[in-house]
Amino acid sequence: MWRGLTLPLPLPTSCTLVKISATHPLCLNKPAAAQKRNRFVMPEYPPPYPISSLPPPLLLLPQTDTPQHFDYLVIGGGSGGVASARRAASYGAKVALVESKALGGTCVNVGCVPKKVMFNTAILAEHMQEAGHFGFYKKGPLAGVDTHGKEAVRETFGFDWKAIKDARDAYVHRLNGIYSTLLKNSKVELLEGIAKFTGPQTVMVGGKEYSADHILIATGGKPIMPHIPGVEHCIHSDGFFALEEMPKRVAVVGAGYIAVELAGVFHSLGADTNLFVRYDGPLRPFDSLLRETLMKEMSSTGLHLHKHCTPAGVVKEEGTGKLSLALASGEVHEGFDVILLAVGRSPETEALGLDAAGVATVGGPGSKGYIKADAHQNTSVPGVYALGDVCGKVELTPMAIAAGRRLADRLFGGMEGVKADYNDVPTVVFSHPPIGTVGLTEAEAREKYEEKDLKIYTSRFVNLFYGPWTVPPEKKPKTAMKLICVGPEERVVGLHVIGMGADEMLQGFAVAMKKGCTKTDLDATLAIHPTAAEEFVTLAPWGLSGKEGEKARAKL
Ligand SMILES: Cc1cc2nc3c(=O)[nH]c(=O)nc-3n(C[C@H](O)[C@H](O)[C@H](O)COP(=O)(O)OP(=O)(O)OC[C@H]3O[C@@H](n4cnc5c(N)ncnc54)[C@H](O)[C@@H]3O)c2cc1C
Fold first, then answer.
1. Active-site residue flag, 24
2. Four-CA torsion 312, 317, 320, 323, nearest 10 degrees
3. Is the beta carbon of 220 within 6 A of some atom in ligand 1?
4. Nearest-angstrom CA–CA distance, 382 and 386
5. Which of 151, 103, 112 has its CA nearest to residue 130?
6. For residue range 56-75, what is the model confidence (pLDDT) as tens digits?
7. Does residue 429 carry a pLDDT above 70?
8. Which residue from 397, 427, 438 has its CB within 8 A of the most atoms of ligand 1, so it is best to mutate?
9. In contact, 494 and 483? CB cutoff 8 Å
10. What's the predicted TM-score (pTM) here?
11. What is residue 212's predicted lDDT score, i.e. its pLDDT?
12. How far is CA 535 from CA 211, 302, 482, in A?
C-alpha cells in the first residue's frame, strides 16, 4: 500500500499496489540513513526507470483483501509491548498493538501491581500488630488490655480480605483504562484478539490479516503447573489474585520470589502458612546472607518452612473440601484450604503460530521454548523481534520496558545500534522483610575474581524502628547488608540488603553502581541519619571478611 504519497498516475480501480520488500530495487533510492534504520521509505516518484519495465505481479495485483499495513505491529499489551508501541508512535511510526486479554499484561493484572497492594496490606497488618510497642491500644471494650503484649493489639483488629480484593480489582481496572487512554493518546491502534502469524510479516487477529514492516513479540509468560495427580485442586499465582476469601491454612509450593512473596502475604495476614521448597531454602540464586536472614525471620515469625520437599500429589477431601499435599518422600501434609503452586513460568507462545513466521525458539532438554533473541531483540527472522518474559532473560517489568523502548529507538528513532543493558539489574523481593539486590552475589564474585582482589563487607543490625520494643534484642527483626568490592580501588560489584525499607533503599545505590562507584565514593558520601540505609556509607573494616576483618575486629 502506498502511504503518505499522492500518486500522479491514474491507477486502474481494480488494482492495488503491494508493499515491496526493503531490499527490492524500488527501495534502493531511499535515503541512506533510513536504509540503515531499515525503515520503509517510499522511493522517489516517478521512479528513474519506466514503470512498465517492472514485472507486473510485483506492482499490480488484482484487488483482494489487502492486509491493513503498519510500520510496527506489537503483539502483547503488557509492560514491554505498550512501552515499545508508544515509543515507536512518538517517532511518527504507524503502530498497532494486539492484546488478547486486559491491557497492562502480567504486571498490572496478575503481577507487580496487585502483588504490591497485597504486600502493603500485609505490612499494615504487621504494623498494627506492632502498634502496642508504640503505646497504641484499642479504646472501648478492650480498654485496659496490656498494650505491651502483641496479642492484645492483634485481637482488636478484624480483616476483610474481600474488601481489599474489591478495592484492588477496582484499582487494576482503572489502570487498564489508563493504559487504553495512553495508547489512544499516543495514536497506537489497539487490535483486540489473539494474534497468530500467517507469515513472517503478516499476522491474523479476529479473522483479519495485518501486515507490518516490523513485528514485535512481547507476549510474556504464564505459570507452570506440574504434572501431579490432583493438580486441578491447586491454584497458581493468577489464582491468588482471584481468591474471594482469606484461607486459614495454606501451602505454598515453590522457592522463587513469587512463592516467597505470596507466602509472606498469607502469613502476615494471619493464615497458617507452610512454604515447601525443593532444596535447602528459598531464593537459591540470591546471596547467602539474604537467604539465611530471610529464613531466620520466617522461622522467628512462625512461617513454616519445609525444606527438601517435592510435591507428588494433591487430594481433596469430600465434604470438608480440605486439601492434602503428598510429597515424594511419602510425607503427607493435611488440612489446607488453599495449595498454591509457584513452581516457575513458561513463555506464552502457543497461540502465536511461530512456525508460520519461522521464528526460532530455544531448544534442547528442559527448554521451556523461550524465543531466541539477540542483544538487539532480533529473532531468527528479519523484521521480527522479541523481548520481555517471552525471551526469559530477565523477567522483570522494567527490563521489558527498557528493551521495548530501546528497540523502538533503534527501529524508528534513528538510534543505530542502541540496545538495552541487561547487566547489574537491580531487583527487590517483597518478602517479609523485603530484599534489595544488585550485581554479583558473593558466590558469583568468588567464582569470577581471585580471593586477593575481593573485599566483602557485611553488617547485621537492628533497625531503630524496633529500638523501643520491650523484647530481648535477639528477638528483634534484623537488617543485614553486604557490599562486594573488587580491586585496589574497591569497585562495588555487588550490593545486597534485607530488612525494613530495603525495597525503597536500593534504587539510588543501583544508580551509583551503574556509574562505577567505589567503597571510597560510599565512604565520602555523608550519611543520612537516622536511617538504615546510612549503614551502606559507613561500613567499617571490622565488617570485612577474611584476615583483614579478623585483624580489625581484634582491635575493637
Ligand atoms: C505474581 C507476579 C509478581 C511479579 N512482580 C514483579 C515485580 O514486583 N516487579 C517486576 O519488575 N516484575 C514483576 N513480575 C514480572 C513482570 O510482571 C513481568 O516481567 C512483565 O510483566 C513482563 O512483561 P512482558 O511485556 O514481557 O509480558 P506481559 O506483561 O506478560 O504482557 C504480555 C501480554 O501479551 C498478551 N498476549 C499473549 N499472547 C498473545 C497473543 N497471541 N495475542 C495477543 N496478545 C497476547 C497477554 O495477554 C499479555 O497481556 C511479577 C510477575 C508475577 C507473575
1. no
2. 0
3. yes
4. 11
5. 151
6. 443 344 445 688 999 999 99
7. yes
8. 397
9. yes
10. 0.87
11. 98
12. 55, 28, 10
Substitution site in 74, 103, 106, 346 for ligand 1 pocket (most atoms within 8 Å of beta carbon): 106
Cβ of 322 closer than 6 Å to ligand 1, yes or no, is no
With a 6 A CB cut-off, is 256 part of the ligand 1 pocket? no
* Rounded (5°) CA angle 346-380-68: 90
Question: SS3 of 127, please?
Answer: helix
Ligand 1 centre distance from Cα of residue 221 (Å) = 6
Partnered with residue 437 across adjacent β-strands are 427, 496
Closest alpha carbon to 122 in 299, 273, 255:
273
Distance from the CA of 106 to the center of ligand 1, in angstroms?
3
Alpha-carbon dihedral 51, 52, 57, 58, rounded to 10 degrees: -20
C-alpha of residue 104 to centroid of ligand 1, in Å: 8
The answer to whether the CB of 477 is under 6 A from ligand 1 is no
pLDDT tens digits for 289-308? 999 999 999 999 999 999 99
Domains and CATH numbers, the chain: 15-62 (no CATH), 69-222+347-412 (3.50.50.60), 231-343 (3.50.50.60), 427-555 (3.30.390.30)
User: Checking DSSP bridges between strand 479-486 and strand 311-316, what pairing results, if any?
Assistant: unpaired
| pLDDT at residue 139, as a whole number | 62
Q: 87-111 pLDDT, tens per residue?
A: 999 999 999 999 999 999 999 999 9
How many angstroms separate the CA atoms of 58 and 163, rounded?
Answer: 62
Cα–Cα distance between 159 and 149 in angstroms, integer?
20
Rounded Cα distance between 445 and 434, Å, is 23
The answer, yes or no, to whether any atom of ligand 1 lies below 6 A from the CB of 388, is: yes
Atom of ligand 1 nearest to the CA of 104: 49
Give dist(CA 233, CA 251) in Å, integer. 12
Q: Which of 180, 219, 352 to mutate to test the pocket of ligand 1 (most atoms within 8 A of CB)?
A: 219
Neighbours of 75 (CB within 10 A): 28
Q: How far apart are CA 265 and CA 75, in angstroms?
A: 33
Of 398, 432, 427, the closest CA to residue 501 belongs to 432
Beta-bridge partner residues of 180? none
Q: Atom 23 of ligand 1 has which residue's CA nearest to it?
A: 79
Q: Which residue lies with its CA nearest to atom 17 of ligand 1?
A: 107
* Helix 161-185 × helix 112-130 angle, to 10°: 140
pLDDT digits (tens, 9 = 90+) for 488-516: 999 999 999 999 999 999 999 999 999 99
352 CB less than 6 Å from ligand 1? yes
Kind and range of the H or E run holding 339: strand 338-341
Please report where in the chains the cell 483483501 appears, as a residue.
65
Q: Identify the band that residue 541 occupies on the pLDDT scale cut at 50, 70 and 90.
A: confident
Ligand 1 contact, 404 CB (< 6 A): no
111 lines ligand 1 (CB under 6 A): yes
Burial 209-218 (b: 16+ CB within 10 A, else e): ebbbbbbbbb
Catalytic pick among 148, 214, 308, 529? 529
